[in-house]
Design brief:
By secondary structure, the chain is an alpha+beta fold. 31% of the residues lie in helices and 32% in strands. A hairpin with a 2-residue loop joins strand 4 and strand 5.
């Protein structure tokens, strides 16, 4: 990771963390995509294909939290040595699960996308609700 100091010099940073507060409701997924893209770009993670996957994943997680999670509480982003993880905390203790859906179904494919584009994901109880976490695929090394 590269961070720019106040004097404009670049320093190598081994670990970065952020918490993003999002609105609850219909605008939450779009806000999460925009905020995550801005954050990761600010952390010098600018590969477009990788960013697309990251924003798709966060959109699916936030949509699930809004629809099924009893209210979205927080999105946490952690980066260390080219690895980025996301975690979302909501108010529902109901654990997410991948649903088998047919192609005509209007919903239910969110975790299919997460499975396809993330390295791994899971969930665990957190307070009265749960925390869903995702380890993104490693950031591609720039030559």
């Amino acid at each position: 990771m590269i961070a720019v100091t106040g004097d404009g010099k670049a320093d190598v940073v081994s670990e970065l963390n952020a918490e993003i507060e999002l609105p609850d409701g219909n605008g939450a997924a779009a806000a999460a995509r925009a905020a995550l893209r801005a954050l990761l770009t600010g952390w010098n993670l600018t590969d477009e294909d990788w960013l697309y996957d990251a924003t798709l994943i966060v959109s699916e997680l936030v949509t699930n939290a809004v629809r099924h999670g009893g209210g979205l509480l927080a999105l946490h982003v952690h980066a260390s040595d080219g690895r980025v993880s996301l975690s979302l905390t909501d108010n529902s203790a109901r654990m997410p699960h991948r649903r088998d859906t047919d192609e005509r179904s209007a919903g239910g494919r969110g975790l299919v996308f997460v499975d396809a584009f993330a390295q791994t994901w899971g969930a665990h109880p957190h307070g009265p609700g749960k925390q869903v976490w995702v380890q993104l695929t490693p950031y591609p090394h720039q030559s």
